């Protein structure tokens, strides 16, 4: 990891060890846990600040080509493939489908509205609207973000080299080259990276919020270890134990990267592809087993719900295959994509736990409100 001060290799950039990175990770998790322990009103305000930081972060990538004195052509942006791929891949179509994964990362986290539904007014309407709105914003902002990056790219080999001015960090190098070419100084790059860092910080805070609410919900239904403790809330109605447990588990998972980066990547692959599989399973069951018994809520997609549902299931099936493809050749024990092994193992564990235990005692989510008087169109 590089902390860009006055220009990386040219200006004395400081390369920190993996242990310092881990310590910083622990500090940020501690801060995130403290912030998530605040009353809901304060957390909501911080979420708005985070949204503003994310907006400015995306805006910076949109305008960065205007700062650069040299810009890529539209032909390069929309038609060029990196033929000097350093991972041993030379097939353009293969590179293209792997590139889809990077754009897929921008379409995550939009389900946070569902996790926060118990703390949302008129949640059966505002919750789904929040999800749809988040997807629309992510599509537009993500597209603009990618365009801003690619139009600012000048020298791909140098951008990816660990010996460049930012130590191999592509986004940092793009900012560095743009501001150095225009102003002869990297100060602007540091400021821009600081704004993006702030956006990432608030994204981490929101991730911990979502995770703690998931843990709380499962614990309230008795589906988590130590459920009796994790379902407790404080006077501000914050699931405080679930918040700190989530932060602790996140730190423990990151510790594996100190010993084996392959093991850490295997765990993160479960979180990535498992997320989309978790989205697709209830949609698939709704379209098949539940098509006659499913009761629509106030917010629904109407007659378009079925076709959109099948498109979603098929898309998740496609990206699940893409996530499992090797991303580097030749394939060795260090370059093998362990995603199928990790996700398959987690799936087998989940199914086995359900068959041998869960199905005998789990009765479904526990309701804590009376909705018998509600009527939906």
UniProtKB/TrEMBL annotation:
Q: How does it sit in the membrane?
A: Multi-pass membrane protein
Q: Where found in the cell?
A: Membrane
Keywords from the UniProt entry = Membrane, Transmembrane, Transmembrane helix, Transport
Residues passing through the membrane, by range? 20-38, 45-68, 88-110, 131-153, 183-203, 270-289, 301-325, 337-357
Q: Which InterPro entries match?
A: AA/rel_permease1
GO CC term (a single one): membrane
Gene Ontology MF term list: gamma-aminobutyric acid transmembrane transporter activity; L-alanine transmembrane transporter activity; L-glutamate transmembrane transporter activity; L-lysine transmembrane transporter activity
One of this protein's GO BP terms? Answer: gamma-aminobutyric acid transport
Name the domain of life.
Answer: Eukaryota
A Pfam family of this chain? AA_permease_2
- For this entry, the protein name equals Amino-acid permease BAT1 -like protein
């Amino acid at each position: 990891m590089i902390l860009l001060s006055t220009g990386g290799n040219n200006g004395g950039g400081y390369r920190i060890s993996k242990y310092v990175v881990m310590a910083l990770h622990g500090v940020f998790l501690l801060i995130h846990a403290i912030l998530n322990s605040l009353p809901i009103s304060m957390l909501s305000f911080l979420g708005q600040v985070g949204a503003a930081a994310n907006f400015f972060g995306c805006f910076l990538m949109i305008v960065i080509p205007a700062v650069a004195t040299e810009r890529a052509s539209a032909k390069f942006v929309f038609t060029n493939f990196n033929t000097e791929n350093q991972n041993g891949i030379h097939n353009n179509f293969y590179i293209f489908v792997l590139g889809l994964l990077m754009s897929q990362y921008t379409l995550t986290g939009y389900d946070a509205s569902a996790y926060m539904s118990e703390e949302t007014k008129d949640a059966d309407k505002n919750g789904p609207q929040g999800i749809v709105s988040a997807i629309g914003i992510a599509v537009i902002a993500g597209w603009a973000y990618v365009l801003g990056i690619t139009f600012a790219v000048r020298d791909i080999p140098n951008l990816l080299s660990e010996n460049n001015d930012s130590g191999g960090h592509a986004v940092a190098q793009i900012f560095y080259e743009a501001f150095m070419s225009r102003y002869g100084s990297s100060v602007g790059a540091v400021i821009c990276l600081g704004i993006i860092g702030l956006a990432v910080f608030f994204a981490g805070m929101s991730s911990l919020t979502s995770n703690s609410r998931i843990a709380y919900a499962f614990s309230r239904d008795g589906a988590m270890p130590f459920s009796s403790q994790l379902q407790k809330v404080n006077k501000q109605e914050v699931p405080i134990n679930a918040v700190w447990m989530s932060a602790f588990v996140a730190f423990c998972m990151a510790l594996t990267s100190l010993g084996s980066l392959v093991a850490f990547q295997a765990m993160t692959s479960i979180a990535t592809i498992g997320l989309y599989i978790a989205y697709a399973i209830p949609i698939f069951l709704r379209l098949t087993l539940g098509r006659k018994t499913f009761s629509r809520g106030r917010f629904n997609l109407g007659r378009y719900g079925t076709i959109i549902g099948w498109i979603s299931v098929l898309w998740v099936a496609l990206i699940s295959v893409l996530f499992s493809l090797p991303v580097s050749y030749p394939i060795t024990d260090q370059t093998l994509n362990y995603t199928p092994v990790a996700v398959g193992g987690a799936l087998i564990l989940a199914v086995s736990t359900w068959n041998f235990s869960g199905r005998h005692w789990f009765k479904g989510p526990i309701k804590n409100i009376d909705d018998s008087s509600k009527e939906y169109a």
